[in-house]
Amino acid sequence: MISGQTRELPTVGAAALDRLMPMHVLLDADGAIVHAGPTLMRLLGEDPVLGRPFLEVFELRRPGGIDSARALADAAGRVLTVRLCGGDGPFLTGLAQPAMPGGLIVNLSFGISVVDAVGRHALHAGDFAATDPTVELLYLVEAKDAVLDEFHKLNQRLQGARVAAEEQAFTDTLTGLKNRRALDHVLARYARAGLPHALLHLDLDWFKEVNDTHGHAAGDHVLQRTAEILVSEIREDDTAVRMGGDEFLLIFPRLTRRDRLAALAQRLLERLQEPMPFGDVHCRVSASIGIAVCEAGGTADAAGNLARADAALYLSKRRGRGRFSFSAPGCPPGCVPGAVHPQGVTKLSSR
Amino acid sequence: MHGLINRSLQNFLSDSYGVEAWQAIAARAGAPAEGFEAMLNYDDALTWSVLDAAAAHLVKARATLLEDMGTYLVSHPRMHRLRRLLRFGGVGFVDFLHSLDRLPERARLAVPDLEMPVLDLEEQGNGSFQLTVRFERQGLGLVLVGLLRAMADDFGALVCLDHAGAPDGAEVIAIEVVEVRFAEGRAFALATPAP
Asked: Which residue in A5, A249, A260, B112 has a CA-CA distance of 20 to 30 Å to A111?
């Protein structure tokens, strides 16, 4: 029968409240705790809280200025931020509502600090109401961590592959030396840093003849042997580049002393002239070298320095090969170097 | 197919039969020699090729491999994270069964593009359930049989499982929960165990 009569509402008992809201507290009219939900009891541990004022057990952080049961009752409906007094535990979010007769019910929740709280208080699924999506939230956090972890691993592998690919892109496959692309990087870096360095441009003499007489395999062997000799004569920070064909370039950071460069060039010439056995033939080549010293604060750019080394190499070739020459510092490409020091080995291998 | 599925298949094969067996299977199936990336996508056909290659290389029935893989997904230490994520489904095995309908939803919350079957659980009373599995191809139901068996162990429940194909291309798993608390089961805490 539908009527305007006031019908008695069903009441909800404490046991039902415990299941529906396992983190609630019931306060009497004086603001003292008369009941706490089972999950909240776990948090409170051994601390006897029944009969004690709510504001003594919990520190009310927000809203501010609430210091009496009356003020707390007035805050009903506002979002509360509380923490257990004297602890460093997580902040809880709360909501208070009047309860009959003349009391207050405050329901609390962990909010985002739940991840920390389940570990700290060893909570399990039964500590949360089945309607509360907290367990789903924990599931999501763990799923997210697992996925992030996989992405992290993928990124690391990709980074490793990128480094390897870059290394390959900068390497001459026949000799294992750096290639022209790497050269541009290194020179641009030294130019930017204003780092003094020297360039040693080396071109094999008689290489074409070896190729024509003994075949490409022999030619490749000579190039590989040359690379080995170059690598064995340079320091760890130096760079050896195969420019293409039978042309090589060595870069010496922080080395500008001509006597040392001359000694090195001399040694390279001697070693490269030694016969290189390949099967039952002995390949014989020599080399011509041009050296450009690039002082700190020099005006020339990387291309200009390369051109100077190239001009010095050309001079060595013109003077009869098997020798090295220095380019005058600052000498513009194409000009006749004014301070060239042709030196070196005159004895060419007889062919 | 999602890399997670392919990677799980790869881990199952290499953890169960050795890295060399996996490499032989991968070569036979045309799978990437360096293995599958969990967070990349692959052509669907490749997954089934790997499975066929594994059956041929190991001389085992596909059905056996699929079921073993399901067990592996829950019980192998390497898959501890998946096991935990599944345990979030319920406090006991029956709760877990009831969570299966929403398993695809749960999975997609974490990995939105993961291919998941449509699962439909019907409770038939007296501890009997019937799970219908619909996927692009038959076979995933067998993985679920292995997975359910391992999850029952995990919860300490005693169950009987029976797998059958259905005429409409679906697969049906009959589940009989004989005893919910048959053994101790493995512990599960909501908090992530310290690494």
From this structure: B112
For residue A89, what is the domain's CATH number?
A: 3.30.450.260
How long, in residues, is chain B? 195
Residues B109, A145: C-beta atoms closer than 8 Å: no
Q: How many domains, chain A?
A: 3
Question: Who among A119, A138, A154 is closest to B88 (CB)?
Answer: A138
Q: Is residue A158 assigned to a domain?
A: yes
Structural domain contains residue A8: no
Split at pLDDT 50, 70, 90, the class of A5 is: low
Interface test with A, best of B10, B111, B190, B192 (most A CBs within 10 A): B190
Q: Are residues B43 and B120 in the same domain?
A: no
Same domain, A114 and A88: yes
Contact A46, A119 (CB under 8 A): no
Please report the pLDDT score of residue A297 as a whole number. Answer: 66
In this structure, the answer to whether residues B111 and B156 fall within a common structural domain is: yes
Contact flag B91-A126 (C-beta cutoff 8 Å): yes
**Chain A, nearest residue to B111 by Cα:** A147
Do B34 and B106 fall into the same domain? no
Q: What's the pLDDT tens digit per position in A171-188?
A: 999 999 999 989 988 998
Say if B178 is an interface residue toward chain A (CB within 8 Å).
no
**Domain enclosing residue B127, as ranges:** 91-179
A49 CB burial (10 A radius; 0-12, 13-18, 19+): buried
Name the residue among B134, B94, B130, B98 with its Cα closest to residue B116: B134
Answer whether B192 sits within 8 Å of A142, measured CB to CB.
yes
Please report which helix (H) or strand (E) contains residue A63, including its range. Answer: none
As given in the structure block, the two tokens for residue A347 are: 């004895």
Q: Report if residue B134 sits inside a domain.
A: yes
Structure confidence at residue B25 (pLDDT) = 96
* ipTM rounded to 2 decimals: 0.85
- Interface touch B191/A145, C-beta < 8 Å: no
Residue A199 maps to a domain? yes
Chain A partners within 8 Å of B190 (Cβ): 118, 123-125, 135, 138
Distance CA A287, CA A271 (A): 10
Distance from CA of B79 to the nearest CA of A (A): 11
Name the pLDDT band for A334 (thresholds 50, 70, 90). very low
Average pLDDT on A250-268 reads: 95
pLDDT of residue A72: 94
CA-to-CA distance for A143 and A126, rounded, in angstroms?
21
Contact A201, A290 (CB under 8 A): yes
Which single residue is written with the structure tokens 């003094």?
Answer: A196
Count of domains in chain B?
2
Could you list the residue range(s) of the whole structural domain that residue A161 is in?
Answer: 133-169
In a domain, B32, yes or no: yes
Query: Is pLDDT above 60 for A347?
Result: no
A4 occurs within a structural domain: no
